[in-house]
Design goal:
Layout lengths: L7 H6 L19 H8 L7 E7 L6 E9 L6 E9 L17 E7 L4 H13 L1 E8 L9 E7 L3 E5 L2 E10 L2 E10 L7 E11 L14 H9 L3 E3 L13 E4 L13 H10 L3 E5 L7 H8 L8 E6 L4 H8 L5 E6 L3 E11 L5 H4 L2
Length: 354
């Protein structure tokens, strides 16, 4: 039996970012083409790291993403924020508005009072390069370098991530739905790992992750229970289950009869969706039926709402499939989705026979 290698040199190269050393646990140092390439690149491993966070809010949606792409020669970073829904801000912490954050993109999903208040907090304390807002109220946001009114679908590819912002007309109101997923990787050429865990009380997670030294990530994975999503790396998978969709709800009542654009967006990406952020209000039966069909059976999927999400909606979308899960954000916890993409390594001999 070969001697166990502790990979201390690998941990040092990568600043002890524990979760990202997982691909190397079963590999010998000189068997991995990734390690050889890492050494040639001066200690920077070819990888794309991400951390998406549903913040600790009791109303509405407050969702941020932080990505670092080291797949190419030039390193790229991206940080974005999506805000929608809610009438009052009752959260104690406002880590999404910490001055440590710097957003290339802020997407205002609707003009709900809480969403506007959170956007104002963020613009006052953080650098925001561009804000995308729904049609209807062309307001200059102090502290934002550029404001774009979205009247038709916008597609961007930043940091190897596809970002799709879609206007949704609800009566006289307009809202913005937001979808994003990796723009390039496939299970044939890469491996993708995701750890999904509550962002619990006792530490405020910043929207902009420190990808050079993810000590908060290491602490979470060492001392908390979490779900590790890796089935998408098995033989036979043709795409990763890494799509995220968020949408808002405008006006009084459920407003759901007008969300045809949301249904269309779900239809476009149904089999790739793992995470859906839900508005606080009721969903139509059509939306519930569509959401129930996201992803693939046997793969864990999350529907993320708040304490305000109607119980009927929670029951309708979770009953019948143990891998379809609901998570409610609140003052005690948010939800953290983090992981990486790396080039696929040679398969260990023991797995070839399985």
């Amino acid at each position: 039996m070969p001697a166990v290698n502790t990979r201390r040199e690998t941990a040092d190269l990568r600043n002890d970012c524990f979760p990202h050393t997982l691909p190397f646990i079963s590999q010998e140092p000189h068997e991995s083409p990734l390690l050889c390439e890492e050494e040639q690149r001066g200690g920077k491993m070819r990888a794309k790291y991400y951390r998406y966070l549903f913040h600790k809010v009791t109303e509405g949606v407050c969702y941020s993403g932080s990505i670092r792409n080291q797949m190419e020669e030039e390193q790229e970073d991206l940080c974005f924020l999506y805000l929608a829904g809610g009438f009052v801000c009752t959260e104690k912490g406002v880590s999404y508005a910490s001055e440590e954050n710097e957003y290339q993109l802020l997407i205002l999903g609707d003009y709900a009072p809480a969403a506007i208040q959170r956007a104002c907090r963020t613009a006052r304390s953080c650098r925001v390069v561009e804000a995308m807002i729904p049609d209807g109220r062309e307001e200059e946001q102090a502290g934002v370098e550029r404001v774009r009114v979205v009247r038709e679908e916008v597609r961007l590819t930043l940091c190897r991530e596809l970002l799709q912002i879609v206007p949704v007309r609800e009566g006289e109101e307009s809202t913005l739905a937001f979808y994003h997923a990796d723009a390039k990787g496939t299970p044939e050429t890469e491996e993708c790992l995701a750890s999904i865990k509550p962002a619990i009380e006792g530490g405020e997670c910043m929207a902009r992750a420190d990808h050079d030294k993810l000590t908060c990530e290491m602490r979470c994975l060492l001392y908390n229970d979490f779900t590790l999503c890796k089935r998408q790396n098995q033989k036979g998978c043709i795409q990763f289950l890494d799509g995220h969709l968020l949408f808002a709800s405008a006006g009084e009542g459920d407003g759901s009869e007008n969300r045809g654009a949301v249904l269309e967006l779900i239809g476009q990406h149904r089999k790739r969706l793992r995470i859906v952020g839900l508005p606080d209000k009721d969903l139509s039966s059509f939306e519930i039926d569509e959401i129930k069909e996201i992803g693939e059976r046997g793969f864990a999927r999350w529907l993320v709402g708040t304490e305000k999400t109607p119980a009927e909606v929670v029951k309708a979308i979770t009953v019948g499939d143990p891998h379809r899960r609901f998570f409610a954000t609140g003052e005690q916890a948010g939800l953290c989705i983090s992981g990486y993409y790396v080039p696929r390594m040679a398969e260990p001999a023991i797995l070839k026979s399985l």
